[in-house]
């Protein structure tokens, strides 16, 4: 259903002349205000120096015998794809073999290419399916690259710009889903039809292996290349939180993996792992949401439901993720939002032990494993005031040698006197909401910057940010991260507590944290700035319209804002499982209570607002941000706007753009609450 009373529908024309003229005018006005100070220039230059620093950790991913890295710096803003050996990496000054210079490619082809990743062919790792984005959009072109000659395969697997799914099966075959015209995409803009595409064959003539419904989010297909367990899987995602997956037999028949549609599955060698997202009764045993169960895969397909519980959540403990090495399963576990790793060994009857922990009130993240060849693992540990340490280890059968330190990142700001504390606020319904406070302990309230997300089961865990440290903490500010419902901090139940008609709980949680900060004397409403992007941008819009008295400044980044039309814009239809369907009257009833665009009022006293987005964001439509600003201006409120022409949903395509955008954010916040 459209909104006939909306005078700003014309701003939904992404690259229309009138819309872009409006964008340019708003950009010029706001940049004249926000970039005219020495502080802005200092912030921009400081942030750019951090982003481009040569002593950053070059994180690597193993492919066969070599370690691969993608690197951006001042001389290579679009980036270098390169590789080296472990022995060379250990020296601290690796001898990198350059594979692809994206800046040189962009210049040669007169395109604003942004690196979007590469799938390297197993097991020889001699070919790659490279994805390149124009300006950072989700849509990419796909090209086959020869990792021996370092040349493009001109007659290889290539695809024009689309939101494609593509992955290797063998040397001359891939699974592919792409835009082939009417009927090939879902209403969310993702592939509806998956094909088995053979080398030299027109993609439109490739064998269809699976078709999803047009109203599904997407279809998918993948090949498991594990030696001795080679298998193909196909399926569909009816919505953002449910999946129907099939084992694709060599004769083309499909065998349903019959698990609850909202469960997450992982087939590894002989095992089927199932992570529940809602309670599931198996053979008379009720397993809670957030449990991890293990079955024999072939026996399960035959009807055997004998389960082993590998993880069971508690009110304070949840499973964040898991990963396999050759002989072990590594679990990433959150306890009150602090990450720890556990190792389970199937050959030792799933014996359990802990890996070395990260810092207190910090995180330890599994960066990479080598499940086909070894028990090697790479870790990254950090905290709000502790820079990253990059480690490599190898798991043993009974115990684990201490991992070796490969790199330690230098401090990007002076953390002397800074403390990290965790508090709990009480939301409107009595739920305890955790949040982290980073800053100097003081009896005097001070300028504070707070963020949150609260959606799609994404957890905000502690992590080091040189940008926030240099631009905010080192200048005397306090930083706060609110772990509100809708996220994944306490597993799927924390997420589902704020789904659909219960969305208001996420917003009540964030407001509760803001009040708690004031009650503790950490800050005041006038000194509290908040920022968030995407679903977090929607959160900022709701704070603006429902709780304006709690904040001194609000930064709204690549946001959803018009929830009456979100499902009609770009990938918006895929998020109706999260928010609801605005075309269903009873669901619009609850959405309308918080949709920021419809709830803006001329007679309200709003704090100053900065809104940012990207013209090339093909996930969350830039019209959300544009229309928000147009309506705020119409009503006479103070609002600044910046729309980057490039950047996709991340808002920036290179380090210069990232530094500029974040300098705008920090300058705006310092002006309003500093």
From TrEMBL:
Residues 6-392 form the Peptidase S9A N-terminal domain. Residues 472-672 form the Peptidase S9 prolyl oligopeptidase catalytic domain. This is Prolyl oligopeptidase family serine peptidase. The keyword Hydrolase applies. Keywords: Hydrolase, Protease, Serine protease. InterPro entries: AB_hydrolase_fold, Pept_S9A_N, Peptidase_S9_cat, Peptidase_S9A, Prolyl_oligopep/macrocyclase. The lineage of its organism: Bacteria, Bacillati, Actinomycetota, Actinomycetes, Pseudonocardiales.
């Amino acid at each position: 259903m459209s909104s006939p009373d909306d005078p700003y529908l014309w701003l939904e024309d992404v690259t229309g002349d009138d819309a872009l003229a409006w964008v340019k005018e708003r950009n010029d006005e706001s940049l004249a205000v926000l970039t005219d100070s020495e502080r802005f220039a200092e912030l921009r230059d400081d942030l750019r120096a951090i982003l481009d620093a040569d002593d950053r950790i070059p994180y690597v991913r193993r492919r066969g015998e070599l370690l691969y890295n993608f690197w951006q710096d001042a001389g290579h803003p679009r980036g270098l794809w390169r590789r080296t050996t472990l022995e060379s990496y250990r020296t601290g000054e690796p001898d990198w073999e350059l594979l692809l210079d994206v800046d040189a490619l962009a210049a040669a082809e007169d395109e604003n290419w942004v690196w979007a990743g590469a799938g390297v062919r197993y097991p020889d790792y001699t070919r790659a399916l490279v994805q390149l984005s124009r300006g950072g959009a989700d849509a990419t072109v796909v090209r086959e690259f020869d990792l021996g000659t370092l040349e493009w395969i001109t007659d290889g697997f290539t695809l024009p710009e689309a939101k494609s799914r593509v992955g290797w099966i063998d040397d001359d075959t891939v699974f592919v889903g792409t835009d082939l015209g009417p009927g090939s995409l879902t209403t969310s803009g993702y592939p509806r039809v998956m094909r088995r595409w053979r080398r030299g064959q027109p993609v439109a003539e490739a064998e269809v292996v699976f078709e999803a419904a047009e109203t599904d989010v997407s279809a998918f297909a993948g090949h498991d290349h594990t030696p001795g367990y080679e298998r193909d899987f196909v399926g569909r995602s009816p919505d953002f939180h449910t999946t129907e997956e099939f084992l694709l037999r060599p004769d083309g028949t499909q065998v349903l993996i019959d698990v609850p549609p909202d469960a997450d599955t992982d087939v590894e060698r002989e095992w089927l792992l199932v992570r529940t997202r809602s309670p599931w009764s198996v053979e008379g045993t009720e397993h809670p949401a957030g449990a991890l169960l293990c079955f024999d895969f072939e026996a399960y397909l035959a009807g055997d439901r004998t389960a082993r519980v590998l993880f069971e959540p508690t009110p304070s403990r949840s499973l964040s993720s898991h990963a396999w090495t050759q002989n072990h399963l590594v679990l990433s576990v959150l306890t009150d939002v602090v990450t720890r790793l556990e190792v389970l060994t199937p050959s030792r009857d799933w014996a359990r032990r802990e890996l070395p922990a990260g810092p207190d009130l910090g995180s330890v993240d599994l960066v990479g494993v080598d499940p086909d060849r070894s028990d090697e693992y790479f870790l990254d540990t950090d905290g709000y005031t502790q820079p990253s340490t990059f480690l490599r280890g190898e798991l043993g059968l009974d115990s684990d040698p201490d991992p070796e330190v490969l790199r330690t990142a230098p401090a990007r700001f002076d953390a002397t006197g800074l403390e990290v504390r965790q508090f709990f606020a009480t939301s409107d319904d009595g739920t305890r909401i955790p949040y982290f406070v980073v800053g100097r302990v003081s009896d005097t309230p001070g300028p504070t910057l707070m963020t949150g997300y609260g959606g799609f089961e994404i957890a905000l865990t502690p992590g080091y940010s040189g940008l926030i440290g240099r631009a905010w903490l080192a200048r005397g500010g306090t930083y706060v991260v609110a772990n509100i419902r809708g996220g994944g901090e306490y597993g799927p139940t924390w997420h589902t507590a704020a789904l659909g008609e219960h969305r208001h709980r996420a917003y009540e949680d964030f407001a509760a944290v803001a009040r708690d900060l004031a009650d503790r004397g950490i800050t005041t409403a006038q000194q509290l700035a908040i920022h968030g992007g995407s679903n977090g941008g929607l959160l900022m819009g709701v704070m603006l319209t429902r709780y304006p008295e709690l904040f001194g400044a609000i930064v709204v980044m690549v946001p959803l804002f018009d929830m009456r039309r979100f499902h009609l814009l770009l990938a918006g239809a895929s998020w109706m499982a999260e928010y609801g369907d605005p075309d269903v009257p009873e669901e619009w009833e609850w959405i309308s209570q918080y949709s920021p665009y419809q709830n803006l009022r001329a007679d309200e006293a709003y704090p100053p607002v900065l809104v940012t987005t990207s013209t090339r964001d093909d996930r969350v439509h830039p019209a959300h941000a544009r229309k928000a600003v147009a309506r705020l201006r119409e009503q006479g409120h103070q609002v600044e706007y910046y729309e980057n022409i490039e950047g996709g949903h991340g808002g920036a395509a290179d380090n210069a753009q990232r530094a500029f955008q974040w300098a705008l954010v920090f300058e705006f916040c310092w002006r309003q609450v500093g």
